[in-house]
Amino acid sequence: MGGERNGPMVPLPDDWTQSDLIDLLAPRSQAVLILDTETTGLDPEQDQCCEVGAVLFSVPERSVLAQLSVLLPVAANPAEAINRIPAHCTRLPQPWRQGLELLASLAADADCAVAHNAAFDRAWFGRGPLPDLGLPWLCTMDDIDWPADLGLRPRPSVRDLALAHGVPVWSAHRALTDCIYLAEVFRRCDDLPRLLQEGREPRLLLRAVVSYGERQLAKEAGFRWNDPVEGAWTRRLSDRQLQRLALPFATEVLEG
Fold first, then answer.
1. Which candidate, 4, 88, 109, 239, has a CA 20 to 30 Å from the CA of 38?
2. Reading across the β-sheet that carries 250-255, which strands appear in turn?
3. How far apart are alpha carbons 171 and 105 in whole angstroms?
């Protein structure tokens, strides 16, 4: 019969807020798959992924469970000056197909995928040889409200995030490097379960209603110009984030 439930409804305390209800219903991560990609360019429609790195990380134990890094064969790499991956090295004999099978196995043991600037990395999965992992994604740059005492600006770089947590940073620009940075940040983060839980809350795409003279207010609040909406300052925020920020300007919902 429509409308039936599996059990009796339990009344909630009268003083519960919307945030309390979100906390009750939000998913809690036991393991996350930290991911990073290196690519031959910025356009998934035209360019290719030439390397993928992954770390399966236990949230309760604050421990790395498994990790991998594999090069994917490409004919050319115009981004070699940035990622330092010669195209001919990607074509040397190595078990990249088995590496992708292991990647799919790691994803099967994870509750969500995590990346820094996840919108970029996510776009490469399900294209070419990279499998569609079938996981919800969380972005450590946009979705997590890092503690204010770290002194981080909105949308911090992975380097700044690592340094703020006392993680040594070296110069290598490879996929597994950024995964290790994030794993070390997570290992040092006492409040990790709450940060991940809040980071996975639903978000709305909001436009900052500001004049040209007030544009700095939007920028300081982490809103971006022309990204993803041209001619607008926008940012994706959860209800909790919006309340916490107490923005000094009005916002308009563009997308739910």
1. 109
2. 224-225, 233-237, 204-209, 250-255
3. 30
Structure tokens at 163: 């340094």
What's the CA gap between 154 and 139, in Å, rounded?
13
* Banded pLDDT at 12 (limits 50, 70, 90): low
Sheet holding 137-139, edge to edge: 63-71, 49-58, 31-39, 112-115, 137-139
| Token pair for 19 | 């945030």
* pLDDT tops 70 at residue 187: yes
Instruction: Determine the Cα–Cα distance for residues 69 and 53; give it in Å rounded to an integer.
Output: 4
Are 225 and 233 in contact by the 8 Å Cβ rule? The answer is yes
- Tokens encoding 70: 């594999």
Separation between Cα atoms, residue 93 and residue 88, nearest integer Å = 11
pLDDT digits (tens, 9 = 90+) for 158-183: 999 999 999 999 876 799 999 999 99
Phi, psi of 16 (to 5 degrees): -70, 140
The Cβ-side half-sphere exposure at 136, using a 13 Å CA radius, reads: 15
Q: Following DSSP, what letter does each residue of 76-141 receive, concatenated?
A: --TTHHHH---HHHHTSS--HHHHHHHHHHHHHT-SEEEETTHHHHHTTTTSTTS------EEETT
Whether 173 contacts 186, CB under 8 Å:
no
CA dist., res. 164 & res. 168, Å (int)? 10
> Rounded to an integer, what distance in angstroms lies between the CA atom of residue 69 and that of residue 67?
7
